[in-house]
Automatic annotation (TrEMBL):
SUPFAM superfamilies: TSP-1 type 1 repeat. It comes from the Eukaryota. Gene3D superfamilies: Thrombospondin type-1 (TSP1) repeat. InterPro entries: SBSPO, TSP1_rpt, TSP1_rpt_sf. This is Spondin-like TSP1 domain-containing protein.
Length: 105
């Protein structure tokens, strides 16, 4: 492998440089780049207003792996169960049931 030394001021637009001893050395070796995920988003609101529902959270890839870098592992989305208040009968439903009961006698 051939290395050619350049001072920092003489290098422009070079893609693959290695700094050694205050000088940049061009090399044909490519650097592996590992995948990088963003942090998880906040959980979404519960999918239901009463009873059992679900919430989701997601993340995205900030930097894809390149060359022999570590791949992105794990899910982009996660889900968890959430529980909202019980789905009791509303006052309107109670009124209708009460009227139906009174009219049957």
């Amino acid at each position: 492998m051939v290395h050619t030394a350049f001072t920092q001021s003489s290098v422009t637009g070079a893609d693959m440089l290695v700094c050694e001893g205050g000088r940049f050395n061009c090399t044909s070796d490519v650097c592996d780049v590992d995948c990088e995920w963003s942090g998880w988003s906040v959980w979404t609101p519960c999918s239901v207003s009463c009873g059992t529902g679900h919430q989701t959270s997601s993340r995205h890839i900030l930097k894809s792996s390149q060359y022999r870098g570590a791949p992105c592992e794990g899910p982009k989305k996660r889900t968890r169960t959430c529980t909202a208040p019980d789905c009791g009968m509303s006052s309107h439903s109670t009124f209708i049931v009460h009227l139906m009961t009174e009219n049957t006698f």
